[in-house]
Every structure is written in structure tokens, then in C-alpha cells.
Amino acid sequence: MQKPEDIQAIGDILAIRWADGQEDFLPMDKLRAVSPSAETQGEHDLLGNLIGGGGDFGKDFSGVVVTGWKPVGGYAYLFTFSDGHNTGIYSYDYLREIGKAMAQV
After folding, report:
1. Averaged over 28-40, what is the pLDDT?
2. Which CATH number fits domain 4-103: 1.10.3720.10, 3.50.30.10, 3.30.2020.30, 3.90.1300.10?
């Protein structure tokens, strides 16, 4: 797991530079659409059944931008979005996964 060296908002793109030199450019509306929050992804009960989620996943968030971010422990970032969403904790590994997926689009 690598920690980002730098994160910058450039218009409606979130630019992340990683310690290994990799750079990811994530459209903020897409970042919001794949939020790892329970309200977007759902959560599992003790028996492993998925509860909730699906409300936001895949929804069009055109025009939504990142308004701020802060580190969570030594493993993730919490992003705040212009639509008020602020409950998704994006691990470094998840951010790398999103960056790889976005590069293929």
C-alpha cells in the first residue's frame, strides 16, 4: 500500500501523484459515483447478507466536485463533495484501483 505524495484539485479533476511516480487523474463526479460509503455500496450483516446500497452507485453526478479532503489514519482519505456527501473512506488501494480503471476508459 502506497501513500499519495500529492493530491491536487485541477478544475473538476482530482490529480494524485504516488510515491512510485504513478499519476492518476480522477474525474470528481466519477469519484463520487464510486464512493465506498455504506449508503452507496451497502454493508454486510453478521451473516454476510448485503443490506442497503445501490442508491447512489452508478448514478450520474455530473457537476459534483470535491470540496475538500483529509487523511484517515495512514491508509485512506475522506473526501467531501459539493452535494454534501462525506461518508466514503477511500483507501489508498481503492484510489489506485479507481485510477487504473479510469485510465482504461
Report:
1. 82
2. 3.30.2020.30
